[in-house]
Structure formats: structure tokens, C-alpha cells
Specification:
Blueprint lengths: L1 H32 L2 E6 L3 E21 L5 E6 L6 E2 L4 E6 L1 H29 L5 H26 L2 E3 L4 E3 L9 E2 L6 E16 H9 L6 H6 L5 E3 L11 E5 L9 E9 L10 E13 L1 E3 L3 E4 L2 E8 L2 E11 L5 E6 L6 E3 L13 E4 L1
Parallel strand pairs: 1-20
Antiparallel strand pairs: 1-19, 2-9, 2-13, 3-5, 3-8, 4-7, 5-6, 7-9, 9-12, 10-13, 11-12, 14-18, 15-16, 16-17, 17-18
């Protein structure tokens, strides 16, 4: 009976040892079968993010040139796109009504002057009353003022530029009938050019929160230089500055207007043209991961974070880098975390992997 019991005990020990070895072998086989994946460790780096907004350019001064008298265009002294100086003649107007007005004012003045010259000696001899001569003198003063006005009106037949700038399209040609509502051309002072762009309320508040300063004016003064992309995508050579932010939200579009100024020494920027304003944001300790290390699921961005010899899915908040190839981590991962950087579509939550550190 004792031998039988010993035999049973030995058998049970052998079974336990066999199962244990079998489990160890299975674990060893599973570990050997675990695929290798490249892994990156998140470390802070310096990077520049960019916010891009469509913009329209306007000259520092965009002035519609209108005649101050009615008449026909008699001469055009400039061509479209010409650079002009303040006071330079642009057009000449043949204004019959102005000529007639001057002639009538001159005649009225001459008559009033003769009346005063004729009657003043009589007043001095008390032949007529002083009240009468004062009445004629007042008429002379009025006629003289009317003559000055008529002469000034005649000076307006030459239309001059009010500022230094560049002419736009010339809307009327020789012989065209024009009046004070006719826009003959536009003169744009483009020494500096204004870029107008807009942000919605959500973008505005985030934009202001990220800037240094207590008040809006302080934040504007602390803003970095901005850049301008021409309509062909090329970057304009001169940096600009944001000058103003509107204090009113447009009720139709729900946006707030910005005005930035760019120097335009070479005249490359044209009033009325369009492009894009680029506002940089510098981050000194950004965590950056390649976009192909992420995937989306139900409108969430996820990455595979390494824990020991396994991976887990981690939801993250990100923003794209300017090159469109990477993400900056806003939340969900921290410095020192490890994530799988490639072949993530073959992974699943909790899967064991071998690590190949980059």
C-alpha cells in the first residue's frame, strides 16, 4: 500500500513538472513569435506652428479720383499703373458751366465795382446817404467773393493727385461726359500695404490667450512678425505686423477683422490683390510625432503607447505641423512616453511586441 501511494505521488509530481515546462515553453514560443516594432521616445523640441488666414490687400491710402466740376474730359495725362506724385495733373476737364460761371461772376464784380466808384464821391458830398453807399460796398464784397469762388472752380478743371501713389484703371477717356460722382481712376499709396483678414470668435479667443500681455493692446504689441503668401504660393520677402483688431463681431459672418501692415518698397504688393497671412507660434518644448504613428476612430486620434512588452491605445489631442507630416501633442501623451511609430495597423490593444528603439 505504501509503494502504491509513493507511485501515485511520483506520478503527480511528474505531471506538474510536465505542465510547468509546457507553460514555460508556450510562453517562450509566444515571446519568440512577438513581432518587432520601431518605437520612439517622446522628447521636447523647438518647433514653429503656423496659422494661415485668407487676406485681401489695400493700399495705405486708396483714393477715388473724382472731378469737382461737370464737363467733358479734354486731356488724360497719365496711364494706368503709372506712379504719380502728390499734386501731379491727371486729367483736364472742359467745363462750359464753369467758364460761364466765371464770366458771370467777373461781370457782376465789374458792375459792383463801377457802382461803388461812381457813388462814393456822391456819398462823400452827402448827396446820397451813407446807408446807400454801404449797400453798394456790400454788393461789391459779395461779388468779389463770388469771383474768387468762380476762379477756384476754374482751377478744378485740372484734376490732380491728392497723394503719392499708383494709378488704377482709367474708367473714362477723352470726350467722356463726367460729373462729381464719376470715378475717373483710383490712386493707391502702396508705400505700405494693409492686409485685412478675419478670425471667428473661437479662433480669436484662443489666439489672444496664447499671447503675452494683459490687455488687447499689449497683446498686439507683443505679437511676432507675420508673413504673407502671394496668390501663387510664394512667400513675400518682407515681414509684417498686426496693427489692429476690430472690437466688433460681424453679425453676418461671426468674425472679427484684423489689419496687418507690410512694407512695400519694391511695389510688388498691389492694392486689391489677395493672398494668405501666416501667423507663427513658437513652441520651445513641443512633443512631436509622425502622423503615420496615429490612426482615427470615431473622430478621435489615437496612438499605440508602449507599456512593458505590450501596447495600449491612447487617445490624444493634436495639431498639425506646417509640413503636414507630423503632429504636435496637445494632450494625451507626456515626455518620456514611448509609442509605436510604424506598422500600427497590425497592432491591437494589449498586443505584445518586441521593441526596436529609434
Amino acid at each position: 500500500m505504501m509503494r502504491y501511494n509513493n507511485f501515485i505521488i511520483r506520478g503527480m509530481v511528474l505531471v506538474i513538472l510536465f505542465v510547468s515546462c509546457k507553460n514555460k515553453q508556450a510562453e517562450s514560443d509566444q515571446s519568440a513569435k512577438a513581432a518587432s516594432y520601431q518605437v520612439i521616445t517622446l522628447l521636447p523640441q523647438v518647433i514653429e506652428l503656423q496659422s494661415v488666414f485668407p487676406a485681401v490687400l489695400r493700399g495705405q491710402e486708396d483714393i477715388d479720383i473724382k472731378p469737382r466740376v461737370d464737363g467733358f474730359i479734354e486731356a488724360v495725362y497719365v496711364d494706368e499703373g503709372a506712379r504719380v506724385r502728390k499734386g501731379q495733373a491727371l486729367f483736364k476737364i472742359n467745363s462750359p458751366s464753369s467758364v460761364k460761371g466765371l464770366e458771370e461772376a467777373q461781370a457782376d464784380y465789374n458792375t459792383a465795382k463801377l457802382d461803388v466808384e461812381r457813388l462814393r464821391p456822391l456819398a462823400e458830398k452827402n448827396i446820397i446817404s451813407h446807408v446807400q453807399i454801404e449797400s453798394y460796398e456790400n454788393a461789391l464784397t459779395t461779388a468779389e467773393a463770388a469771383l474768387r469762388q468762380a476762379k477756384a472752380t476754374m482751377s478744378w478743371v485740372t484734376v490732380t493727385s491728392p497723394v503719392d501713389g499708383v494709378t488704377g484703371t482709367i474708367s473714362y477717356r477723352l470726350g467722356s461726359l463726367v460729373n462729381n460722382s464719376s470715378v475717373l481712376t483710383t490712386v493707391a499709396n502702396t508705400t505700405n500695404v494693409f492686409a485685412y483678414f478675419s478670425m471667428n470668435e473661437k479662433e480669436l479667443y484662443k489666439f489672444l490667450r496664447d499671447r503675452e500681455g494683459e490687455t488687447k493692446d499689449e497683446k498686439i504689441r507683443n505679437m511676432p512678425d507675420i508673413r504673407f503668401l502671394l496668390s501663387d504660393g510664394a512667400e513675400y520677402e518682407e515681414p509684417g505686423r498686426i496693427e489692429t483688431i476690430s472690437g466688433v463681431v460681424d453679425q453676418t459672418s461671426g468674425t472679427v477683422s484684423f489689419r496687418a501692415v507690410f512694407p512695400n518698397r519694391n511695389g510688388l504688393l498691389l492694392s486689391g490683390s489677395s493672398g494668405k497671412v501666416v501667423i507663427p507660434t513658437h513652441l520651445n518644448e513641443a512633443l512631436v510625432i509622425p502622423q503615420n504613428a496615429t490612426f482615427t476612430q470615431q473622430d478621435k486620434v489615437l496612438a499605440y503607447k508602449v507599456q512593458g512588452d505590450s501596447v495600449i491605445q491612447e487617445a490624444i489631442t493634436v495639431t498639425s505641423t506646417p509640413d503636414g507630416k507630423s503632429y504636435v501633442i496637445l494632450s494625451g501623451l507626456e515626455r518620456g512616453d514611448k509609442i509605436v511609430s510604424e506598422d500600427i495597423m497590425s497592432l491591437s490593444n494589449g498586443k505584445k511586441i518586441k521593441i526596436e528603439e529609434l
